[in-house]
Every structure is written in structure tokens, then in C-alpha cells.
Amino acid sequence: MAAVLLDGKVIAKRLKEAIKQEVAVLKSKRGRAPKLVAVEVGQNASSAVYVKAQKKAADSVGIEYELKVVPQETSQDEAENLIDGLNNDKSVSAIILQMPVPRGMDAKKLVNLISPEKDAEGMHPQNLGKILLGRYRIGPCTAMAVMELLESTKVNLYGKEAVIVGHSEIVGKPLSLMLLNKFATTTVCHIGTGERGALPGHVKRAEILIVAVGKAGIIKGDWIKDGAIVIDVGINKVGDKIVGDVEFAGASQKALCITQVPGGVGSITTTMLMRNTVELFKTQR
Ligand code: NAD
């Protein structure tokens, strides 16, 4: 039987509606809406797509959005001063640094300089630490989007065999903690697992499978456990098509629920940025 499709666009629409209502209430109480500022150092085509999507999402929920573009030649010190200024600007609720930054610039240092109270992407070590402690309201947008997708299935994660393939700081690692917080029995696979030839064994016993590798079709359809929930985070360009990391045709014959690429996780991540912005605004005086 074909799996139920987990439609990211439908979930994003529902989440945006809830955020919009919350923003309206906050605005009437505080006299102003949350404000998200995006910093772009030098203009480039790949971040232009994200910036456009962020502005559209912010407009749709009533969040104020400002794009600050500074020249390509901006020095590290100047960029740090800019972030410092935004940290101290009371009208700014949340800050995002657009990637990539020009070569030679220390992106990690700049991201860590964003105050944890204004950390729209939930990537500050202090905010990541809160996930470890199970006390978080914001988090890395992609990991949060995956948790929303899982929640939409209404599956009880308690004791479930969850397997994550990919251990990046923005997806796999925070997700492993989020799943542990829900008492899922969580396994994290990575390049070491793959090179040892151990990936099929782990994937085959996954009741919840989340894949974030960036290699088209690395997860074969016939590895999927019957009745599994499969979330494909991967984005890969194959010819003129965008595909995920999971062989969709085969996997969807075995899974209970599955996401598609595009139309799954990626459709929700920008909405999570808006939700982080609202959560940050709520904790600021
Ligand atoms: P990354 O590129 O930082 O790391 C890749 C991960 O895959 C690492 O943990 C690595 O160890 C693992 N890996 C590589 N080869 C492997 C193999 N043969 N077997 C097992 N594991 C292997 O990861 P990322 O930044 O999380 O990105 C992963 C994918 O998710 C990319 O395709 C990216 O474009 C996509 N992505 C999508 C969204 C979204 O919004 N949908 C957001 C972020 C990333």
C-alpha cells in the first residue's frame, strides 16, 4: 500500500495561521510587532532566494522584516560591529546572518556573536545547550521542522526506534536530542556508519527514519521497514530535478508516512524561523 504523504506546505500553512494570530495578539499588547533583521554581506544569488522567502513568510504572519545588505568588502570587524549594534537595538527581536559570507570572513564567530536572545536560527551554543537540557522554545529551523512533521503524524515517539542518518550541527545532532527528549530510542548514523557498510542494518530497523545526508538515493527503498515514518531532509540536484536522499518510489511502498522532496521539510523551515522570532520577542522586555 502506498504511504500517506506528509505535505510540508499544508503543515506550514497551518503553522503560519497560528503564528499570525499570536503576532496580532502580541502587537495589540505591546504596540509593535516582532522584527526580524537579516544581515547579508555582499549579495549573492543563493541567499537572494532565501531572503525573498523570508520576507514573504514574515509579511504573511505580520512580522516586520528588514534586510541589511553591506558591501562584499566589509571587514570582519565591521560585520561584528553591525551585529553588536543589532544586539543592542531594542526594536530588533531577532537576527539572522545570511550564508554564505565572503571568503575569509569567520562565519561561525559572527553567528556566535548574535545574542542568544536574538538568535533567529537557534544556533547559538547557549540555545543548543537548552535542547540538551530539554528546556527549549526555539531551535535550529530544519530540526524543528522535522519535529513538526513527526507531530503531524500523531505518532507517540516514546520507546520508538528512531534512526537519524546525518550528524550535522543544524539537523542531525539537535534532532537526536529532540528525539531523546521524547524518549525515542535514538541512533545517529554518519559517514563512519556508511563507510563501514552498516547503514542498511540500522535503517532496516527504523520505525522513525530521518535522513539528512545530501546524497541522492543513498537510502534504498527496500531498506525501509514496513510501516515506518520516513522524513527526507536531503536536497540534491539531479539533472534538472530536485530529489531527496531516499529512493522515494520504493520507500513509499513500504512506509506508513513519507515526505517528498521538494514539498516536505523544506516547505516548513522558513516558517520555523518566524516562530523562533516570535518566541524570542515573547521573552524580551
Ligand atoms: P552536512 O552536509 O553538514 O553533513 C552531511 C552528513 O551526512 C554528515 O553527518 C555526514 O557524516 C553524513 N554522511 C555523508 N556521507 C554519508 C554516508 N555515505 N553514509 C552515512 N552518512 C553520510 O549535512 P546537512 O547540512 O544537515 O545537510 C544534509 C542535507 O540536508 C543536504 O542535502 C542539505 O541540502 C539538506 N538540508 C535541507 C534543509 C531543508 O530545509 N530541507 C535544511 C538543511 C539541510
Number of domains: 2
Query: How many strands?
Result: 11
CATH homologous group name of the largest domain: NAD(P)-binding Rossmann-like Domain
- Main sheet strand line-up: 1-11-8-7-5-6
What is the CA–CA distance across the termini? 52 Å
Bound molecules: nicotinamide-adenine-dinucleotide
As a percent range, the share of helical residues equals 40-55%
Low-confidence stretches: none
State mean pLDDT (0 to 100 scale).
97
Task: Break the fold down into its secondary structure elements and pairings.
Blueprint: E1 4-6, H1 8-30, E2 35-41, H2 45-61, E3 64-70, H3 76-88, E4 94-97, H4 107-113, H5 125-132, H6 141-152, E5 161-165, H7 172-181, E6 185-189, H8 191-195, H9 199-204, E7 208-211, E8 229-232, E9 236-238, E10 241-243, H10 248-254, E11 257-259, H11 269-283
Helix pairs in contact: 1-11, 2-11, 6-7, 6-11
The structure holds nicotinamide-adenine-dinucleotide.
Residues 142, 165-168, 170-172, 189-191, 193-194, 199, 212-215, 218, 233-236, 265-266, 269 line the site of nicotinamide-adenine-dinucleotide (NAD).
